[in-house]
Amino acid sequence: MMEEEDLEFVEELEAVLQLTPDVQLAIEQVFPSQDPLDRADFNAVEYINTLFPTEQSLANIDEVVNKIRLKIRRLDDNIRTVVRGQTNVGQDGRQALEEAQKAIQQLFGKIKDIKDKADKSEQMVKEITRDIKQLDHAKRHLTTSITTLNHLHMLAGGVDSLEAMTRRRQYGEVANLLQGVMNVLEHFHKYMGIPQIRQLSERVKAAQTELGQQILADFEEAFPSQGTKVAWLDKIDRRYAWIKRQLVDYEEKYGRMFPREWYMTERIAVEFCHVTRTELAKIMRTRAKEIEVKLLLFAIQRTTNFEGILAKRFSGCTLTDGSLKKLESPPASTNPFLEDEPTPEMEELTMDKGDLEQPKKPKAPDNPFHGIVSKCFEPHLYVYIESQDKNLGELIDRFVADFKAQGPPKPNTDEGGAVLPSCADLFVYYKKCMVQCSQLSTGEPMIALSTIFQKYLREYAWKILSGNLPKTTSSSGGLTISSLLKEKEGSEVAKFTLEELCLICSILSTAEYCLATTQQLEEKLKEKVDHSVVGSRPGCCL
């Protein structure tokens, strides 16, 4: 019976002494101890086994028991001393509390007296400064009235001058005057209920409207809009068709009037390219929000084709330096623009995806005219990059959906783990994008495209590879590629089914294929990218 009561007492004591981890950590920081008896996870059996590791060590059991009893006696003495000390502290605390309450009452009385005296002083100050405040208010109102009258005089005079300058079309003077009038008019927003102020405001609005109409009419008169509707990218073919016709007419009418050493036809074509690049850059900056990826690729394709035609016809000697090289023999064909080509009127400007995403002719390495016009498209290639970002995201989502729908690869004992088809599709798509981007630019856009592919290759690794590894029986979490590679031979092989082993082999093979292909793409990227950005290369994400 006594043993049962002792056990219940011990259980109740353990429940009371069970401390939270935060409290236990704070105690260990304040009172650090290496004694195993002070540990929160103290295990009596392990402690006894530490004291008596062998049967021969039991010979000292009486000595160990005496030491423990001595330690218990010392702990009891310490606890008794602390408890008595706390009893005395409680009595001293009550006495100190009573003294503090008395001091607070005395302090409260003194504060009340001070407050009464302050109220009396404030009343006296109010009576003394009443007249001074009235004078201050009068001065403030008078100053406000004078300032408002000055602003009104400035507004009235400014409106009259604004109307006069508008009639005389003095736009330079009107620009500064109108801003000043608008600033002064802001001070009268709260006075718009007064008829005279409202009339001045209406006159300012009428002058602004008249100015806008006059300026637009003057611009339309000075810059007629005839022919400007063919200036956007969807009509870029008309630019190149026009210069072709002009060069043909020039050679037929005036080609024999100038020496061949002057290269007049090439000079005209080069000047056209410079002007076209400048004008296209301006209009694309102005209408940047209207640029779409299909329209941009369409314009780049037509432009690179035109640059290729220039390379066939001209030597590019006027592009290098001022010295002219004498031709040893005249070219066989005087003008390639006479070749049969569909005209813009005969050819519809279709923008099919297959026709636009890949230029018809790759850039020739020895083309001196490459980039003479198409360089203006490089600042806007972010449209193409964003489009590929979206396409790669949709491609990853489709891979995930196909994997879930088709399930893991079927087990086949005749062959090892096959590379997932989606992995090959992903790299084929990126290689196609990289080839296409290299034809557009070999600078920062190519690096940006590689960075985007790096992001989606990492998503592929997590969503398709790591995300589809089978779960182990020992834990609810799934496997990882790194954990599989670290396992020893023969460890936990029996816990996977044949289908799971086939899936693991396929995922490992796919990861190895991704690693090798990524390294190859890095080397290709170093070869194609400009030397100025060769240091910015994507890292392997597997």
UniProtKB/TrEMBL annotation:
Q: Which GO terms describe its cellular component?
A: cytosol; GARP complex
List the protein's name: VPS53 subunit of GARP complex
Taxonomically, the superkingdom here is Eukaryota
Q: Which residues form the Vps53 N-terminal domain?
A: 41-227, 228-403
Where is this chain compositionally biased, Basic and acidic residues type?
350-363
Query: Per the record's keyword annotation, is Coiled coil included, yes or no?
Result: yes
Question: Which GO terms are recorded in the biological process aspect for this UniProt protein?
Answer: retrograde transport, endosome to Golgi
**Region spans: Disordered:** 325-363
Where, if anywhere, are coiled coils annotated? 97-138
Record keywords: Coiled coil
Q: Where is the composition biased (Acidic residues)?
A: 338-349
Q: Which Pfam families does the entry link to?
A: Vps53_N
Task: Give the matching InterPro entries.
Answer: Vps53 (IPR039766), Vps53_N (IPR007234)
